[in-house]
Write a structure and sequence with these properties.
Low-confidence stretches of chain A: none
Radius of gyration of chain B: 21 Å
Strand order of the largest sheet of chain A: 5-2-1-9-17
Structural class of chain A: alpha+beta
Number of strands of chain A: 19
Mean pLDDT of chain A: 96
Number of helices of chain B: 9
Shape of chain A: globular
Distance between the termini of chain B: 61 Å
Number of helices of chain A: 17
Radius of gyration of chain A: 24 Å
Distance between the termini of chain A: 44 Å
Structural class of chain B: alpha+beta
Shape of chain B: elongated
Strand content of chain A: 5-15%
Oligomer: heterodimer
Helix content of chain B: 25-40%
Mean pLDDT of chain B: 94
Helix content of chain A: 25-40%
Largest interface: A-B, 83 and 79 residues
Chain lengths: ~650, ~260
């Protein structure tokens, strides 16, 4: 079975691989494209840009999203920016450097060829977005402005205030709207994919629930694209939107698509700390804030106690009693170390007793120096909306006192395994954006998620999918009365019937919270063999409790948000278990994955290249069966693999 | 904190709706409005499970449906009309950014959907805003093919124009302007898109078509006309100014003259 993991990486020099692959890919002529149907599930940056570009090429596209409009996909919440190797700042940036930073930031667990391609197409993304009317920040001369992000020493991040994701998504959504108006794309909002339909081993359609009528509907196509984002909500509390979920990807896994590196989850260092038991969502404060904000905790425990009792304000602590611990530990990168490093450093301070709020789980992000250096106006332009957002939530103004921040689950680097063409192990099934695993390795650099979503959707998938479709145009349209559709729909119906039949006493959210606690405790920032084994056991018990005692009120054939949540939670139990299993297998620390058994004397992460320099791709083997691990070795031909060092 | 919640309940688009009142207690003042509704729903589900409570007449309609997603004020999904104001008593926030500290302990809070003939109710507090998508499909885009763009820095845009364009582009498409307007007009929404693009050099060749088609679509979909009451500007969670409506009018007139 291991032969399914053929990465299709072209031979030859790194810089020529994508060009070479493009020249090999077969084409579909314009007259035949309209005979071909493609389903795109998800309308974030990846899904919207892919559906728009495919529609523009003349394919017949059906696009699905769970919200009431494609514009609400969670890409919209990305704040800080998008990277591109434009070298507009004359700071010696280049495609190679963006590639190198991304591989290094990902702790050498991503594919060289994929990452190089990402860096290569990055510049065209900016051009595309500018042409669409995305109002990127400009300098006074009218040229595009840039800022810097974590893990790099150049300024290559393009931004639209703290709303870059929103503006890029509105650009892709506008392109999508243009195709909807042209009739090449049909949009199905408030539809949730609940199963993948396969005929003769190929992806041929989906079963979706119409979230308004509650009815199950069948959709056929020649190929299916999954662009449904990550599975961070397995932790219940995360920066993901409430409805973000891993179910579409998970159904593909259960139909045979391999799932890669599930344990690689990103914990973002600058989120607003948890305020209490009633919380259901964590809010991110953009990484861009680390350009000018300085992270610190008190040096003296007595100051910590006074802060917790609110006897003093943070601004009253004198400079010499502040520990700017990132600047102290990592002088070369300072406050702009990668996210995994910054998160662990915050945890280290709080574990040592220096947490600054009542729960002891917070550090400061301070702008007083920046305000002095740049003045109110410049800081307002750069971060104004983020300051407002912070104030609204916490009732404390960052203009007067430092922000309080703590790490939270933000992004999942793992996802459906794909080859260089972004095709999964199921022919005709593609995965793009956060839903796939391919570009970020063990840790994603800031401002690279937007870059990847748009690279996949605008420039990679529309080219590669043609190769698969090139001999499909003569095939008749997929018949949704095929027994495969019948069977898939029945299976979904049985799942729903089972949920309603339980009639227990526990709410879906209360059980999801429990899952979140297990995940955060054992599959969070520090993972151990003992803890991970416990996690697997506890998740299984919780799953049992769910099937014995969950309460799903209402009926199927109506708008029913509790049913939606229950279906997603079923999958989160299984996703959580696979994450723990993958983390248990990977007995090394790399990127966001930190195994306590594998660290240096200074407490830095210790990678084990001899044993773990591979992609862990898991194959589903059936209900209650252990999944099978397949390994795709990672070969670094063009760069030297080193220990990440942000100190010098 | 304790509250009495008077909430609009409506089974679906066809049936008539009504208010139901619920009591809720033990809410933290730092909880958000939607977290408070989550807690109410947990309570309603538990009560629905409890035969004694059902006999007492509790929980006739199950948990309350409401749209929400990002919970950080950017996706535009949440859309509640609270105590007579779109997104509630705080200024320049979406419902998810509204916190319980803005209410008096013990208060009775009235919660309704965004009401407009163009936004039919789907269930309870959930409305159908697909009319917004349709308006944007009528012209809210620049027709550039993927891959056809020139280098980004060949299009120079004065800093202040980019900033103004961004002010308008901040629209989250929530529908507060329509829900607030006595005429149910979508002018601020349409203006935000038209004006954001009008402030940029890109897309000028189709500017006239854009203004004409979007306004025509807005009228066709049952939104009312604008009478400059500025209510939309007051309630817009992103503080989008009616200056952009003026710019839309200019674009629209230019389009008329160019016919």
């Amino acid at each position: 079975m291991a032969d399914k993991l053929i990465s299709k990486i072209p031979d030859g020099p790194l810089a020529e691989k994508w060009t070479k692959r493009k020249s090999e890919l077969r084409l579909v002529n314009p007259n035949n494209r309209r005979k071909l149907e493609i389903i795109v599930v998800g309308t974030g940056l990846g899904g919207a840009s892919a559906a728009a570009s495919l529609g523009e090429l003349g394919y017949n596209v059906k696009v699905f999203c769970i919200s009431d409009s494609p514009r609400r996909a969670h890409s919209i919440a990305a704040q800080g920016g998008i990277n591109a190797a434009k070298n507009y700042q004359n700071d010696n940036d280049a495609v190679y450097r963006l590639f190198y930073d991304t591989i290094k930031g990902g702790d050498y667990r991503s594919r060289e060829a994929n990452v190089y391609r990402l860096a290569e197409v990055s510049a065209a993304i900016i051009d595309q977005c500018v042409a669409q009317g995305v109002p990127f920040a400009r300098e006074y001369g009218g040229y595009l402005a840039n800022r810097s992000f974590g893990g790099v020493q150049v300024s290559r991040t393009f931004y639209a205030r703290g709303q870059t994701g929103q503006q890029l998504l509105l650009g892709a959504y506008a392109a999508l709207n243009r195709q909807i108006a042209a009739g090449t794309v049909t949009s199905y909002p408030r539809h949730e994919m609940l199963d993948l339909v396969m005929i003769n081993g190929q992806a041929k359609g989906i079963i979706a629930r119409n979230l308004v009528t509650g009815k199950l509907e069948r959709f056929g196509a020649h190929a299916v694209v999954i662009a449904t984002g990550g599975y961070g909500n397995a932790y219940f509390l995360s920066t993901n939107a409430m409805n973000s979920n891993g179910s579409a990807a998970w159904q593909c896994y259960k139909k045979g698509a391999y799932f890669a590196n599930p344990c690689f989850a990103q914990i973002h260092p600058t989120c607003i700390p948890v305020h209490g038991e009633q919380q259901c969502k964590l809010t991110l404060m953009s990484e861009s804030l680390r350009n000018d904000g300085r992270i610190w905790g008190p040096k003296k425990l007595e100051d910590v106690m006074k802060l917790r009792k609110k006897e003093i304000k943070p601004s009253q602590i004198p400079e010499e009693d502040r520990d700017y611990y990132l600047e102290r530990r990592y002088p070369a990168f300072g406050n702009l170390v990668p996210r995994d490093v910054a998160s662990r450093a915050a945890k280290e301070r709080c574990d040592a007793g220096f947490g600054v709020n009542e729960t002891g789980l917070a550090v400061f992000l301070d702008f007083s120096d920046a305000i002095k250096r740049l003045g109110h106006q410049r800081v307002q332009e750069r971060y104004g909306n983020l300051f407002d957002m912070y104030f609204k939530i916490n009732n404390v103004s960052p203009w007067e006192e430092p922000m309080m921040i703590y790490p939270a689950i933000h992004y999942t680097m793992g996802g459906i395994w794909v080859d260089y063409d972004l095709q999964t192990t199921i022919p005709g099934l593609y995965a793009i954006g956060e839903a796939n695993f391919s570009d970020h390795g063990g840790n994603r650099l800031g401002a690279s998620a937007l870059m990847q979503g748009l690279a996949d959707g605008y420039f990679v998938l529309p080219v590669t999918i043609a190769d698969y479709l090139s001999n499909k145009f003569a095939e008749p349209k997929t018949d949704t009365n095929d027994p495969a559709f019948e069977e898939a729909e029945k299976a979904v119906q049985a799942r729903i019937d089972k949920l309603f039949s339980i009639k227990g006493k526990k709410t879906v959210d209360s059980l999801h919270k429990k899952l979140g606690n297990i995940m955060w405790e054992y599959v969070g920032m520090a993972r151990s063999e003992e803890g991970l084994k416990k996690a697997i056991e506890e998740i299984r018990e919780l799953k049992k409790e769910f099937y014995e005692d969950v309460c799903v009120p209402g009926e199927q054939n109506q708008f029913n948000q509790e049913l939606e949540k229950a279906l997603r939670l079923e999958d989160f139990f299984e996703i959580g278990e696979l994450m723990a299993r993958d983390a248990l297998n990977r007995n090394e620390s790399c990127g966001g994955h930190f195994r306590v058994e594998s660290q240096t004397e200074e407490g830095e992460a210790k990678r084990d290249d001899a044993n773990y320099m591979y992609v862990a791709a898991w194959e589903y083997k059936g209900e209650n069966q252990e999944p099978e691990l397949h390994k795709e070795p990672l070969k670094y031909e063009f760069i030297e693999v080193k220990t990440r060092n942000y100190k010098e | 904190m304790d509250f009495n919640l008077k909430i609009w309940r409506q089974k679906n688009a066809r049936e008539k709706g009504h208010f139901e009142t619920y009591h809720i207690s033990g809410i933290e003042e730092d909880a958000s409005f939607l977290e408070m509704l989550d807690i109410l729903n947990e309570q309603l589900i538990r009560e629905g499970n409890d035969p004694v409570a059902v006999e007492r007449g509790c929980q006739s309609s199950g948990p309350v449906s409401f749209d929400h997603d990002c919970r950080e004020g950017i996706c535009g999904a949440c859309s509640l009309y609270i105590d007579g104001r779109a997104h509630g008593p705080d200024d320049h926030v979406t419902t998810c950014q509204l916190f319980m500290r803005h209410f008096k302990d013990g208060a009775t809070i009235t919660v309704e959907p965004f009401r407009s003939p163009a936004f039919p109710i789907i269930k309870d507090l959930v409305v159908d805003r697909s009319a917004y998508d349709k308006i944007l499909q009528a012209g809210g885009f620049i027709s550039v093919r993927t891959g056809a763009a020139q280098d980004g820095n060949t299009i120079l845009i004065p800093h202040d124009n980019a900033e103004k364009s961004m002010d308008a582009a901040a629209c989250v498409g929530c529908g507060a302007c329509v829900a607030t307007c006595k005429n149910g007009s979508a002018m601020l929404f349409v203006a935000a898109r038209v004006s954001s693009l009008a402030l940029l050099p890109q897309g000028r060749p189709e500017a006239a078509r854009r203004a004409r088609n979007m306004v025509a679509k807005m009228e066709e979909l049952g939104f009312g006309g604008c009478t400059n009451t500025r209510a939309c500007e007051m309630e817009c969670p992103k503080g989008i100014s009616i200056e952009h409506i003026a710019r839309l009018n200019r674009e629209f007139l230019k389009a008329k003259f160019s016919e």
